Write the structure tokens for this entry.
Amino acid sequence: MNQTEIQNLEKAFMDFVHKIEHYEEAIGLIDWDLHTKAPKKGRAQRSEVMGTLSEQAFNMMISPEMKDYLERLSDPDVKGKVSIITQKTVEYYQKEYERNHRIPGERYRAFKVAAANAGDAWEDAKKNDDFSLFLPHLKKIIAFKKEFLQYWGYDEHPYDTLLDEYEPGMTVKILDEVFAKLRGQLVELLQQVMDSPHRPDTDFIFQKFDARRQEAFHYVVLKAMGYDFDAGRLDETVHPFATGLNPGDVRVTTKYDEGDFRTSVFGTIHEGGHALYEQNIAPELIGTTMCTGTSYGIHESQSLFWENIVARNRYFWEHFYPELRKLNPDQFDGISLDQFYRGINVVQPSLIRIEADELTYCLHVMVRYEIEKALITDQIKAEDLPQIWNDKMEEYLGVRPDSDREGVLQDVHWSMGDFGYFPSYALGYIYSAQLKRAMDRDIPDFDQKLARGELSPIREWLTDKVHRHGKMKKPIEILQDVTGEGVNPQHLVDYLTEKYRNVYKLS
Amino acid sequence: MNQTEIQNLEKAFMDFVHKIEHYEEAIGLIDWDLHTKAPKKGRAQRSEVMGTLSEQAFNMMISPEMKDYLERLSDPDVKGKVSIITQKTVEYYQKEYERNHRIPGERYRAFKVAAANAGDAWEDAKKNDDFSLFLPHLKKIIAFKKEFLQYWGYDEHPYDTLLDEYEPGMTVKILDEVFAKLRGQLVELLQQVMDSPHRPDTDFIFQKFDARRQEAFHYVVLKAMGYDFDAGRLDETVHPFATGLNPGDVRVTTKYDEGDFRTSVFGTIHEGGHALYEQNIAPELIGTTMCTGTSYGIHESQSLFWENIVARNRYFWEHFYPELRKLNPDQFDGISLDQFYRGINVVQPSLIRIEADELTYCLHVMVRYEIEKALITDQIKAEDLPQIWNDKMEEYLGVRPDSDREGVLQDVHWSMGDFGYFPSYALGYIYSAQLKRAMDRDIPDFDQKLARGELSPIREWLTDKVHRHGKMKKPIEILQDVTGEGVNPQHLVDYLTEKYRNVYKLS
């Protein structure tokens, strides 16, 4: 092929994949709408719409046309002559093609419809605290995942194939080791914390805080973080999420609890962290397949960086505590900054993952990880999940749910078929502490900046090291380039040890 | 073909067209979002998404697969053996196929992208009162329409082809005659009204009425009308619209003017009338192509029926005026029901169509009709529109805009390429008066029902006669079946004459 032919081929391929991205963006918007604005009677029909769009995107991904593009663009004579974005896009779709072309389109579509219906059933089941409403849907979803695993195959462990979808390169072998190491140290630290006589006062947390006033605070904090409201918005939902439709439209959702402002305050900052990633991808990647976060784990490192490392830092509240107090003055009457800081960092083994403290969070993830591995390999049955869930919670965290709403029904993920996703949450934790260690070299006055409410340098550092690259770098490349090492849970343990030594006055 | 083969063919065809409907529903949602929730920086990319989905739906509509289905299902041996819904669906797509298969997909896609961008430009232009920001986009849209007319062809007048898209069977010949007749009588009645010494008091209208309190009233009225909030929602926008994504999700939008409650009160009832049509289509039509209003004119007859014939009726306010007063008591202090009724029915030739009174409304439409006919046939140039618009307004209504924002930039429609649409507004007017005449036979105590806030029988009558049929009956069939005659503007003139005799105490 001569230069012009290569250019034409490259353009045709990129136009083709941009259309796939268009379908994905439409699906993202419909999904946001279903979780925030859509009236309930229209949802069944909307699931059909989702099914059709997903099938179309999927069909394009596994089409003979795609196969032909990938073959021609992999030709050694062509490969080096297209842009680096095109090269990475080809790599991405080669992997997707390999993964998916064996799944019949009709099965994929049926899965998407089932997942949309399961999402509705999950909401009902959670609302009515009735696992049986969700069970038949969950069984379908699990059956689909196992069917798909037969199409995909696996090397060492079937769960590796699921992990790889969210965190490329991650395996049961690595996770078992990292989690074992982490669990041991976390449980030991947790023991010290629980034994400490210096428990923070938390009564002030549970006083009524009007939802609209909480919302007002979110606008202040999100703006300070550098979240661009001309390229996003904030809405209410049942299970908070952020969605990057394109870098000019990255939406944050949150959930309000008027009896515990932490739910929405830390939830919003968390989702804001995800949103900053999507808003700050380099402009040249807009519209391309590379224009999103590189993995779920790296994405989670961003949300957790902001939620924990920034917003659970004492210095952050030197600036923002007065703002929060203004909105609900009585609640914080007589509560010093130090009391406030210690209160929001209270450790309490509890039932709900998204409300968990930093110390116990990863233990929640490990419960789910163990269950998913066992479900996928038929070691346990979906029917027994409530019992198994409750037992594991007792074993890992020492608490036992009274209801499935606060137990096995708490998370939306399984309804969407997202098995293999939860470990990313713990990896995000681990990564965020690794990133903080690296940031300390470039921003030695991190705490002082927080105390002045000066968050831009932090956002800019993260944009430079992580955000702007989108999918152009693999998770492990980012980690290596920025921190100089691979997955290392020790930084998280060190960070937590230092924090709780302070909060709980450990010796 | 045997019975089983016919059944399989019918099912395959209906599955195929349902997918087209799915794309249309997704497009409808994206459009709603663009006009209500979407942050501005993401809109350019979203236009690309719209373009891809529109192209896909369009390509399916004109595909060889569609052609093949239509041919096989039109076979005399097959035709009578499929369901009536399938038969009507085949008829519909035959017409669409004839209309569209000559337009190259790429041109259609380019048009949709241009229209989305023109929508943005129109909003900017209107906001900045700067026609020049919109002009290049408008010229593109007009050029597209003229290009498409070449593909489509026409019999008597090129504008007939545009009219037919919105009101099947309507022609310049009919409209010229109906409008001439109407204009003569309206202008005569307007003269009498303007000469009357009994002008209603309207000062109370322009007192500040908090937008959120106006909104509270909308919820009361929409519920009384029978609008189902489990199958819809109310939001704010720049140019109000209702959108029926499916009968379980029919959304109303409105615009607030705190200095004139009529804008949102009558605007919401108007859009609510559209919404009732879409919410009450027969369940067996859900998901099919027949599941929407039969024409723009009939649709408009529903919105105008509620806005004018119901909500500008004195008896309606016997029930609802106390509700409205409660929300902003000072505004209506000392204003009797009679004063209120006469005030909201004031006639004042004015600049903005959507705020026009019942008497002058059709004159606004005629201005647009004359301009569109002339634009399409190159009798005028887009550059000259502000001047021409202002001249025509002076000629028809005796008022002249000071700004393009209140002149040629006021409507969104041209940005979307909706030429041929405006006449539907006047036809809706004419139809609504014809429907009222027919309703009088079945609901002789119409006024008494309004006075008791009893709106269900009215909604049920409209559902029975109009809504439930969706697209299964043509506009003229509905008109004939319900009123026993074709388009007849005399009922509108009679209705208006009686009303203004009352409001303006004409002799």
